[in-house]
């Protein structure tokens, strides 16, 4: 029975062309030696598909046995070559240093490889004399292969040698390799890739791709809602890294059994292809489709070079605008040349305080997507752990700006679902002209720092809201105002935990412009519960109503309470 090995490190060292990755899968999809008659290199060279070959070295060792064929087109792929494997290459790994062929030949001979087949048509045009001499000394065969030879044809032929019973699956695998090889540079959309995979897999399939351009999904055999839930769980809920997760993993997601392979979730996005295993397990060809398609998914992510260049350009532009040595006139020229007109800009400073459980690549992706949607400028500070984002005000209505900035805040809030210990601070300035970028960043940084001091982590603090509080937080003012503010809150402070709950409700209500629906939403309460708590606060504080001056004093006292109750502050 043909099988695919679980050893796929070579795939992580490929240059990205599927011609170099697909056949390494073929390397390990071979029949057990005890059941498959051995081929010799001499027999293979008689095949018509190798017509026109030339034996460059090791002509006395052509009777060596061959169990499989492998393609290496990455420098370190030789580390996974097995005994009796015939190694073929386009010579890409050694094109910059032909002398490296000597080292490659020595390593292959030490691993008891069956020989080396090279195509001298694209990278190297001829083998160096020292490489030929060393191969002769070691008795190691080197064959110049015909240029038109397709790697998949050679591998499929070796597979088929296993006999009639295994020939059907071998031929099927060969067809998969051939199809994916032909599409390695021609896949232009997720739909094309889906059609390719669905043509070979007879189980329900879900393909998902996420880049700065957004989230794309294709599926067959499952409902749209199930496909979306599955894709979000597999892309966002899975461990990510810079290298592709080449091995399909079998897991259960929301009661659904799947075999899944992912592309690495880097700063530009990632993707996954999953086969749903409800009543039938994925076959070896199904798993091969998973392994091969994940590289094409990564190709689709990497193809978005224009977007990456735009993001890099925006980061540089924001860096230039923040440069204090740049004149205001020069800033205005840069803005007029690179950016559309806007009704002012907000600067947002984000500082990460604790990110032990955070997937930083996923957060960066979300911030890049936000920047693309709202034509914002994003810059990650060189020190790490801090971002500066310049967000254009979408209109004269301040509520539209608030909606955009709430969306930015939600990007960080959603990270808490997967990283409960994540701590951050958000400070917002403006709006003002982007030519005042340095001032805007200073205001946003002050708002973030003071907001964390007053209200703790994981909140967004607006500079305008902090102005009065920063004046009142001066040590001399705090010392003078402490008795009066504490006397105002004393009835609630004396109630212990119940009073703390009432003060939190009152604080959120005042901060949210006295909106009961928003207060209820933020606290997870019914509107009537909020109304009852506010009425209870009024009664406990012995107030006839919440007059404007009373609301102002309550707002300041509640905001400054951490400083009022801490003499050292």
Sequence stretches where pLDDT stays below 50 over 5 or more residues: 1-36, 238-245
CATH architecture field of the largest domain:
2-Layer Sandwich
Through-space gap between termini: 74 Å
Distinct helical segment count: 21
Give the CATH topology of the largest domain: Beta-Lactamase
Output the CATH homologous superfamily of the largest domain.
GAF domain
Largest sheet, in brief, is:
5 strands, mixed
**Average predicted local confidence, pLDDT:** 78
Number of strands: 17
Beta-strand share of residues: 15-25%
Helix content range: 40-55%
Q: Which overall shape is indicated by the principal axes computed on the Cα atoms? A: elongated
Gyration radius (Cα, Å) is 32 Å
- Strand arrangement within the widest β-sheet reads 2-7-6-5-4
Look at the helices and sheets and give the structural class: alpha+beta
Indicate the CATH class of the largest domain.
Alpha Beta
What is the number of domains? 4
């Amino acid at each position: 029975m043909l099988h695919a090995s679980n050893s796929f490190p070579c795939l992580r060292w490929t240059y990205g062309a599927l011609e170099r990755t697909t056949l390494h899968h073929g390397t390990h999809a071979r029949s057990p030696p005890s059941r498959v008659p051995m081929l010799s290199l001499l027999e293979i060279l008689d095949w018509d598909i190798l017509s026109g070959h030339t034996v460059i070295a090791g002509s006395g060792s052509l009777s060596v046995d061959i169990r499989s064929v492998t393609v290496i087109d990455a420098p370190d792929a030789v580390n996974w070559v097995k005994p009796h494997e015939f190694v073929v290459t386009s010579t890409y790994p050694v094109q910059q240093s032909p002398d490296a062929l000597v080292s490659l030949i020595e390593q292959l001979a030490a691993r008891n490889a069956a020989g080396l087949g090279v195509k001298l048509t694209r990278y190297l045009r001829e083998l160096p004399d020292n490489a030929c001499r060393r191969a002769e000394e070691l008795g190691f065969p080197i064959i110049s292969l015909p240029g038109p030879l397709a790697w998949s044809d050679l591998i499929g032929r070796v597979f088929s040698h296993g006999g009639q019973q295994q020939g059907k699956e071998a031929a099927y695998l060969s067809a998969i390799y051939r199809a994916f090889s032909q599409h390695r540079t021609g896949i232009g959309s997720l739909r094309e890739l889906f059609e390719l995979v669905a043509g070979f897999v007879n189980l329900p399939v879900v393909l998902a791709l996420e880049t700065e351009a957004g989230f794309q999904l294709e599926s067959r055999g499952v409902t749209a809602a199930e496909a979306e839930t599955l894709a979000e769980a597999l892309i966002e809920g899975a461990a990510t890294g810079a290298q592709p997760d080449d091995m399909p993993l079998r897991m259960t997601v929301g009661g659904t059994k799947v075999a899944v392979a992912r592309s690495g979730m880097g700063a530009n996005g990632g993707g996954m292809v999953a086969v749903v295993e409800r009543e039938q397990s994925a076959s070896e060809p199904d798993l091969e489709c998973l392994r091969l398609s994940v590289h094409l998914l990564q190709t689709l992510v990497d193809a978005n070079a224009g977007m990456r260049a735009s993001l890099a350009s925006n980061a540089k532009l924001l860096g230039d605008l923040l440069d204090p040595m740049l004149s205001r006139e020069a800033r205005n020229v840069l803005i007029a040349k690179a950016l559309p007109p806007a009704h002012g800009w907000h600067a947002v400073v984000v500082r990460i305080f604790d990110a032990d459980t955070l997937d930083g690549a996923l957060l960066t992706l979300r911030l890049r997507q936000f920047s693309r949607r709202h034509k914002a400028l994003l810059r990650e500070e060189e020190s790490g752990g801090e971002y500066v984002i310049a967000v254009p005000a979408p209109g004269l209505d301040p509520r539209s700006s608030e909606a955009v900035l709430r969306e930015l805040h939600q990007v960080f809030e959603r990270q808490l679902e997967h990283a409960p210990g994540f701590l951050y601070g958000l400070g917002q300035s403006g709006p003002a002209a982007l030519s005042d970028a340095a001032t805007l960043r200073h205001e946003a940084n002050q708002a973030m720092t003071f907001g964390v001091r007053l209200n703790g982590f994981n909140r967004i603090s607006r500079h305008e809201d902090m102005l009065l509080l920063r004046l009142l937080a001066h040590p001399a003012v705090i010392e003078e105002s402490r008795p009066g503010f504490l006397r105002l809150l004393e009835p609630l402070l004396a109630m212990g935990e119940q009073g703390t709950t009432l003060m939190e409700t009152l604080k959120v209500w005042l901060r949210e412009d006295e909106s009961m629906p928003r207060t209820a939403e933020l606290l997870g309460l019914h509107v009537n519960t909020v109304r009852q708590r506010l009425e209870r606060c009024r009664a406990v504080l012995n107030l006839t109503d919440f007059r404007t001056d009373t609301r102002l004093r309550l707002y300041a006292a509640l905001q400054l309470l951490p400083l009022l109750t801490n003499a050292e502050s």
